[in-house]
Amino acid sequence: MYPRGLNDDHETAVRAAASAFRAGLERGGLRMVSLAEFPKGSCGDACELLGQFLADSGLGDWQYRSGKRDEPFHTHAWLEQDGLILDITADQFPDIDEPVILTRDSGWHAQFQLMGGGHVANLGRFDGHDHVGDAQWTYAELVRRATEPPAA
């Protein structure tokens, strides 16, 4: 756990980084097919890319979590760190309007039965896949978009 003041600063920095990263995803035009209809159907790959971005931004490692629910059937993925939940694709579901969820309340995510134990979300998860080049290009482009100075 972070001390209270550091925690607030950390959460502020995480929200800012995640919001900038999501804004880059929303612009489209990326090589990864899974991101073509962002946020719909994009949660898994978006989490891996965002996890790498957060680590590269000095915001620590984030655990990839995924789950499923049966009625209606859906799968979903999000990130967690020390009890903090970060989700930039939950608004693909009709009951969520927030583009970036950063919370310690697991109520909404608890509807998904966890699948597996999770892992550290990062770009390395694409190694050995036939779309590793697209993932690397997409990550570099998203970093550029998320860190470019605002237009004057």
Account of the protein in words:
The protein is of the alpha+beta class. The chain has 3 helices and 6 strands. The protein has helices at 4-26, 43-56, 132-147; strands spanning 63-70, 73-81, 84-87, 101-103, 113-114, 119-120. Strands 1, 2, 3, 4, 5 and 6 form a 6-stranded antiparallel beta sheet that branches. α1 packs across α2 and α1 (4-26) crosses α3 (132-147). The radius of gyration is 15 Å and the shape is globular. Residues 1-5 have low confidence and may be disordered.
Give the key terms:
3 helices; Microcin J25-processing protein McjB C-terminal domain-containing protein; 35% helix; disordered N terminus; alpha+beta; 152 residues; 6-stranded antiparallel β-sheet; single chain
In short:
With 152 residues, the chain is α+β, with helices and mostly antiparallel strands. It contains three helices and six strands.
Blueprint of the fold:
Blueprint: H1 4-26, H2 43-56, E1 63-70, E2 73-81, E3 84-87, E4 101-103, E5 113-114, E6 119-120, H3 132-147
Antiparallel strand pairs: 1-2, 1-5, 1-6, 2-3, 3-4
Helix pairs in contact: 1-2, 1-3
Low-pLDDT regions: 1-5
Radius of gyration: 15 Å
Overall mean confidence score, pLDDT: 93
Number of helices: 3
Quantity of strands, as a count: 6
Give the overall shape, derived from the CA principal axes: globular
Provide the helix percentage.
Answer: 25-40%
Terminal Cα span: 39 Å
Strand portion, in percent?
15-25%
Which series of helices and strands comes N to C? Answer: HHEEEEEEH
Structural class: alpha+beta
* Largest pleated sheet: 6 strands, antiparallel
